[in-house]
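Thanks for the sequence, V.! I ran F-box domain-containing protein right away. Repeating your input here for the record:
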Amino acid sequence: MDMEQSGGGGAIAARRPQPSPAAAGGGEDRLGALPDDVIVLILLRLDTAAAVRTSVLSSRWRRVWALLPELRFHLAPDGHRIREILDAPEALSLVCISVTTKAAGPEAAAAWLPSAARRLSGDLVYHNMTAPARMKKRGDVLLPCFEKATSIELNMGFLRLALPSLGVFARLAELSLMRVRFRGQCELGDAVSSPRCPCLQKLNVYLSRGLHNLSIHSVSIFNEGHGFGANLFRVLRICTGLRKLSLVLRSSSSLECLSDCPCDEPTSWKTEELLLNHLEDIRILNLKGADHEVAFLKQLFKWATVLKKMTIAFDYQVSKSKAEEFRQALAGSSRPETFVGFYMYQDADKRVLVLIKPEDQGTGL
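Predicted structure:
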């Protein structure tokens, strides 16, 4: 009787799962009993480095962290460690990779970006926080082709970025580049045009350097905001008795054009006559230096027959060379009696304006 009971108990014991180290030590392993999907939800609340460290809890956790659909590294110290995690053989495709570093060099990003390009099927976010005093020490980073990424946001901390000369970003819909110094023979316009970014709808470039030319041929990118010339021409045609005009240009990407918006009207402002024979003073803030702005200001000089003063303050992202190029494009457009002053902000806080003084003509055109 005792033997039968012992034998039966032994068979039952053999079928039971072995207790985890926590249970063997007298504690109850409640975490080990959780299903995989619940463990994944717990790990998603952790930084990826912390999630990886949970693998010491049990062999199940060591397997489950690799099932995470998102990997987030906050102030990651080692790009090679990020690459090791991304290259884990059991790891699945990722919908999000987010990496934040502080004053990281180019080798840190270069270590993991190729692995990220292979794994990612969603959003990439990379922020390299660095002090302005360290800008000159930054090097080059080659951006690999992310064939399956849908969104890429790069704040490079003024690392030099070389764009890939080959490959198609087949699913990329949004690209945001901030504090980038462009480097390499491949221009940004080539990389983001339709042949290589067929789905790109939104492109943002902020506080960047080295972008000497931007010509984009795309059938997918949206034009956000309202047209500059058509809308302003419509207002001026109604208010021909203006004596002073002040324009503050703001990004209006959140404002959608209605069905009867002037943006859809023909560009008649380029050819129509308009007499503004009372307008004496014009002030324009946050000019971007675009070609369509040059074209409209040339028309404005023709319309404003008694204009005495025009003050132009460029957007803080406009470089001094770009501002000078804009000034040269307007040369000869104003009347001799009109003073035209060009100003730039000293910093992004927009607190101090500095007059751009042409070398040959004092402060006018």
